[in-house]
């Protein structure tokens, strides 16, 4: 079982309390009252508009407006509509959804029921990554409790509204976190992303209108319904309201989870909350939002963690997975780990990605072992440029961005390898 | 028949949850592997018949996903996460020590069929690195001695 965050706010306030994962414990904290309010006092459109007004952005990485996404669902009731909860958390450096599944499953389920009411969905598939077997068990127990108490099933809370929730376990493929790769996997196929259009709201799971939202995104919804958009906007920045759960890992004193308002400065997270570098070390760079997001050097950590500010520094919030790298570490080695991952996880569908990720890894490895040339560094950037924006899904971009980031800020490490034929960081972690 | 009556009943219960039969293929593969440890060609044929698809379509799915196996496995799966957050905190050294301790390399099975060892991408335990998983169980904040003891306890 995962430990509670070091800093909590409304999402994780009770995450340290084991009872919060049970229906009785959740109800004792006012749980399921927001769903009752939505289903008995609000129309579906009221709920969509409320979430739109609150400005909730998806917390799975892309940051798309949740209310907007819900509004894309067709109004007609001529065929079944589905919700999908993306619990395939696999972005390296991300571990917040695991906490929400294990310690606050009812909060997410309440958000799902409210989302189902808003979109007219009859069923939600929660797609949990295969490795999260224990979180999936906790979630299934919570779902069973909901059925037993009439919070799910053919007559939710006596309102006549019907909703089912099914847990589907993945089986170890990063690409299934991409929403259409996930839909393919849900249909029992290889998780290869679909061409868009058609978008899931028109043609989603099993060919039916579908909306896909992340675990944390659903978890915010009951709080917005309970407290209103103005309250929600009291957290975060003007353009990025609410809190999020930052997962801090790597070479810091207090790695862990921190629920903080969006717009909290990255240096505040790293140096104050997470306690800064290990004794005798200095922070060299920080990956701000999971491994797909470009790294920032220590000189650029004075940035609010919200996309409108991070974009100016050519990176993004992603999943809020903050990875701290200190002055013992060679960035060529970091590039080896990053490119190995993307080579391994490319679904192989698009040539640019399948071949590009392989070449990035090969060339980085060559530089790592001191056999690279100056030209290789330029070839890396050339390959990145030919991957970005050229493929069915954003995976190729996600593979190119971190390499571009490392070369933008730490090119000297790559040049040192090329020039001296060896690594300038004798204390760096071994591969 | 490889698939037991009990597993078959569980597969049918999964099929009932999906609007199309094939939606239950991943759940079915998890269930069958729980019974048999891996997906043999015979098992793939039986699953193909249940799902009204070709055996190759079953194998396509099996080989796409890391957690499905198309060959026999050790009694226990031990995976060390070697992604960046874990590597920064000593996961590569841990993996090397474990390889030495078991006398096999990542990707191999001990000759007595006890343990299949592997390294895995990020498992979502980044703040408690290094870590490994034994089957469904996560073990976090590990040092080499604790890891060795955990492995020695596996029968």
What would CATH call the architecture of the largest domain in chain A? 3-Layer(aba) Sandwich
User: What's the overall average pLDDT of chain B, rounded?
Assistant: 97
Question: Hey, roughly how much beta strand do the residues of chain B contain?
Answer: 5-15%
Total beta-strand segments of chain A: 9
Helix fraction of chain B by DSSP (H/I, runs of at least 4): 40-55%
> Strand arrangement, largest sheet of chain B?
2-1-3-4
CA(first)-CA(last) distance of chain B: 28 Å
Q: What percentage of amino acids of chain A are in beta strands?
A: 5-15%
Oligomer: heterodimer
Order of H and E elements of chain B = HHHHEHHEEEH
Uncertain residue segments of chain B: none
Proportion of residues in helical segments of chain A: 40-55%
State the CATH superfamily name of the largest domain in chain B. Answer: Glutaredoxin
Report on this structure.
The complex is a heterodimer of chains A (431) and B (155). Chain A has 431 residues and is an alpha/beta fold. Chain A folds into three domains: 9-232, Rossmann fold (3-Layer(aba) Sandwich), CATH 3.40.50.11540; 243-326, Ubiquitin-like (UB roll); 331-420, de novo design (two linked rop proteins) (Up-down Bundle). Chain A has 16 helices and nine strands. Chain A has helices at residues 23-28, 33-41, 44-54, 66-71, 96-103, 105-119, 133-148, 179-186, 215-227, 229-233, 266-273, 307-310, 331-345, 351-368, 374-387, 395-420, and strands at residues 82-87, 123-128, 164-169, 210-214, 243-250, 256-261, 283-287, 296-297, 321-326. In chain A, helix 2 crosses helix 9 (215-227). Chain A is globular and about 75 Å long. The two termini of chain A are 29 Å apart. The model of chain A has no long low-confidence stretch (mean pLDDT 97). The mean pLDDT of chain B is 97. Chain B folds into two domains: 5-64, Arc Repressor Mutant, subunit A; 76-152, Glutaredoxin. Chain B is 45% helix and 12% strand. In chain B, strand 3 (132-134) and strand 4 form a beta hairpin. By secondary structure, chain B is of the alpha+beta class. The longest helix of chain B is centred in the first third of the chain and has 12 residues, at 25-36. Chains A and B meet through strand 3, strand 5, strand 9 and helix 13 of A and helix 2, helix 4, helix 5 and helix 6 of B.
